[in-house]
Amino acid sequence: MNHLKKTPTIQDVARFASVSAATVSRALSTPERVSEDTRARISEAIHATGYTLNQAARSLRRRSARTILVALPDIRNPFFSSILDAIEREATSRGYGVLVANLYFGAVTARRLQDYMLSNRADGLLLLDGSLDPEMLDAITMPPYSVPLVVACESIPDTDFHTVQTDNAQAAERATQHLLDLGHVRIGHIMGPDSNVVARDRLAGFRRAMERAGHDVPPEWLFRGNFEMSSGFSAAARFMALGERPTAIFAANDEAAIGFLSGMRQHGLQCPDDVSIVGFDDLAVAAHYAPPLTTMRQPRETLGRMAAEALIDILEGASPAQGPLHIVLNSELVVRDSTGRPAPKNRKIA
């Protein structure tokens, strides 16, 4: 029979006090940020559970595993391949290994991040997903654990985590301006998920370019999507049902753009003769599709390398001097054959 008693954890204290683990961490490290009533409940919970700040555990937490954990929303997405490759190359060159956690299955999988970090399997976290609960991240990045974290590709609104990302809103403006410069005034947009900060930034950039040019965007020209080819294909069917159609489409990513191109072809339309299309990301397939896709090229290799470099620098004691690190990289417009001038007004489109 096992007579060993489980050592109380910060999660036990949180459950007893009916607060989050992040709130317990704040009460222990910066009590002035927590209300007096909440501090009293946490103090009672600490006494009741027998929880203590284990200095030996802190020392163990500082012992280097020479490994970083990379967490991403969907490992199946080809967008992440070159980013992961660059992260692994940079980490290897600095003497670190890389663990990968796939967050595709949501909150249950996200909670595994705490297990990874608090069991000393990795020294720092490189997060490629902006949808995680900030309180869950606070629980591991604040004292007593203080796990170094860098968020890459996406940001998490209203937080002060270190970030490395690209200029999504500005790049979307430039993509839309390319279509405006070709003479298009009726331009639609295939959006990403409403909950995704990158999708919202790209929609905002699209709207800014259209407003600056003095052109309205009817609601029916905004096609809901989810960054997948299937959503672009579905947008093509909705496009065909419109009474007045756009002459050009800016898609929130290349996969949606390629899905839209495929749907247009099935309906007998040609690109760019009948409709011009701009994507975003410059996936490997973009240059080899028919027609080759005009797109915004994100510097994904540079993003992965700089994110890994920033995290390892922090692990090795080179923290930024003035607050959180925020790096924004510029995207590049790559013009290919999927964009052209709008068809003459007397040209009849099916």
Q: Could you characterize the architecture of this molecule?
A:
It is a single chain. This protein has 13 helices and 12 strands. It is an alpha/beta fold. The protein folds into 3 domains: 1-49, 434 Repressor (Amino-terminal Domain); 65-166 and 300-330, 3-Layer(aba) Sandwich (Rossmann fold), CATH 3.40.50; 168-299, Response regulator (Rossmann fold, 3-Layer(aba) Sandwich). The strands form 2 sheets. It has a 6-stranded parallel β-sheet with strand order 2-1-3-4-5-11, sandwiched between helices. Helix 1 (10-17) packs across helix 3 (36-49) and helix 2 packs across helix 8.
Q: Would you identify the CATH H-level superfamily of the largest domain?
A: Response regulator
Helix count, DSSP H or I runs of 4 or more residues: 13
In the CATH hierarchy, what is the class of the largest domain? Alpha Beta
Number of strands: 12
For the sheet with most strands, the description reads: 6 strands, parallel
As residue ranges, the low-confidence spans are 54-62
